Amino acid sequence: MASGTCGSADVPHLPGRNMTQLINRLETILNQAERRALVAVLRSRPDLTLGKLQECFTGQFGATLQTITIRELVETPVELELPSDGGPVIDRGALERAKRLVGEEFDVCVLQAIQSAGGQPVSASYLRVRVGGPRWKLLDSLRRLVDAGQVERTGVTSSTRYRPLVMPPDQ
Where in the chain is CATH 1.10.10.10? Predict the structure, then answer.
């Protein structure tokens, strides 16, 4: 490993002061990344009201949200790419896990993806990029969720949308 780089092989050899500096630097970088990610999410939701945003102040990111300024929302360069459909960021790990699931276990992933839209109706294509798997597997799951009364289906063909009938307690 080249000198000046930070790798797992370097960490045990750092004196206490250097380790503290490394940890402080890492914490600063992570805090900045969290702020930028929150700014990106807020920008992706231009219809979000300040009243609705205030409801998030007690959540996991509440302390950081309370310190974000209007200037940051307008001027902060954000390199985080959000989905063009306005939905939540796609979790690649969840996609990989869902590939191996079948039946009710897969249905849970689909229902969670529908619920993650905050009660807004979503299309099958919206779900496909968030859950993965072949089209037939997703459609079978949606049919089971509709039949079980957990999801409402409206529209036909390309205008078909799915909305959760029951939201999880934390939403």
Answer: 92-164
Q: What is the pLDDT of residues 82-100, one digit of tens each?
A: 566 666 666 666 777 777 8
Per-residue tokens: 138: 């997703």
Please, which residues have CB within 8 angstroms of residue 31's CB and are 6 or more apart in sequence? 64
Residue 162: CB atoms within 10 A of its CB come to: 23
Neighbour tally for 170: CB within 10 Å: 6
Q: In CATH terms, is domain 92-164 a member of 1.50.10.10?
A: no
How far is residue 1's CA from residue 48's CA, in Å, rounded to a whole number? 47
pTM of the model: 0.51
DSSP structure string for the chain? --TT---TTTGGGS-HHHHHHHHHHHHHHHHHHHHHHHHHHHHT-TT--HHHHHGGGGSTTHHHHTT--HHHHHH----PPPPTTS-PPP-HHHHHHHHT--HHHHHHHHHHHHHTTTT--B-HHHHHHHH-S-HHHHHHHHHHHHHTTSEEEESSGGG-EEEESS--TT-
CA atoms of 37 and 60, how far apart (whole Å): 14
